[in-house]
Specification:
By secondary structure, the protein is α+β, with helices and mostly antiparallel strands. It contains 6 helices and 7 strands; from the N terminus they run ββααβββαββααα. Strand 1 (11-16) and strand 2 form a beta hairpin.
Length: 203
C-alpha cells in the first residue's frame, strides 16, 4: 500500500533488560535471539538491551528481513516477523546501532554538512550523502562483527558465514570512500575507525 510498515504491525513486544512481555510465539523467538546474543556475542546483547525498550514486529517482506526506526522515538524500533534467532539478532544489532548514531548526531555532525557530493551506497543501491554512508557503515560493520562472533557456534557457523559474505563486499565498497574522505569530522571518524580496525584485525 506504500504506507509505513509500522501501520500494519501485528504484534507488540516490550523488551526491558532480559524480560519480554507479550507477542506470543514471536516473543519466544525474540527471547531465543537475546539468549543467543548472550551466549555467542554478549557485548552485542548489552549493546541492544541498553537502548531497546519497545519493539514493534511488522509483517515480513516477500523475501528477506527488514527493520527500521521511527524518527523521534528513541529506544523503539521495528523488525519484521521472523522466527530465525540469528536473523532477529542481525536486525536488533543493526537497529541498536542506528539508535546510538541518532543519539549522537543531534549534538555532533559526522561529516561536512555543506558538502553536496553524493556517493553510491551498495546497501540501498542509490546515491547517498557521506553522512548517510557513515550511518550505514556503522550499522553494517556492527552486523559483520556480530556474525563473526557467531562463527564460534557449530550449530550456527554456516548461517553466520553466509551473513558475513552478504555484508562483506558492500562494506568494502563503502570503506574505500570513507577511509579516503576528508569530509568526515572527528566524531564521524570516531564512529567508524574502531570498527574498521576490528574488522581488519589480523589481516
Amino acid at each position: 500500500s506504500g504506507g509505513h510498515p509500522v501501520t500494519g504491525a501485528r504484534y507488540d513486544a516490550i523488551v526491558v533488560g532480559a524480560g519480554i512481555v507479550g507477542a506470543g510465539i514471536m516473543g519466544c523467538a525474540i527471547a531465543h535471539a537475546l539468549g543467543l546474543l548472550r551466549a555467542l556475542a554478549p557485548r552485542y546483547r548489552d549493546w541492544v538491551t541498553r537502548v531497546l525498550r519497545r519493539l514493534i514486529v511488522v509483517a515480513a517482506p516477500q523475501a528477506g528481513i527488514m527493520s527500521g526506526n521511527l524518527h523521534g522515538y528513541y529506544s523503539m524500533f521495528y523488525i519484521s516477523d521472523c522466527r530465525d534467532p540469528l536473523g532477529i539478532g542481525e536486525m536488533l544489532v543493526h537497529e541498536a546501532s542506528h539508535q546510538y548514531f541518532h543519539s549522537i548526531t543531534p549534538l555532533e555532525d559526522v561529516a561536512d554538512q555543506t558538502d553536496p557530493t553524493t556517493y553510491y551506497s551498495p546497501f540501498v543501491k542509490r546515491q547517498r550523502t557521506i553522512d548517510r554512508l557513515v550511518l550505514a557503515y556503522h550499522a553494517f560493520a556492527n552486523v559483520y562483527l556480530y556474525y563473526r562472533e557467531c562463527l564460534a557456534s557449530q550449530d550456527h557457523h554456516k548461517q553466520a558465514s553466509a551473513g558475513l559474505r552478504t555484508v562483506h563486499d558492500d562494506l568494502s565498497v563503502v570503506e574505500e570512500t570513507l577511509m579516503t574522505s576528508d569530509k568526515l569530522t572527528p566524531t564521524g571518524r570516531a564512529l567508524i575507525e574502531p570498527l574498521y580496525r576490528e574488522m581488519h584485525r589480523g589481516n
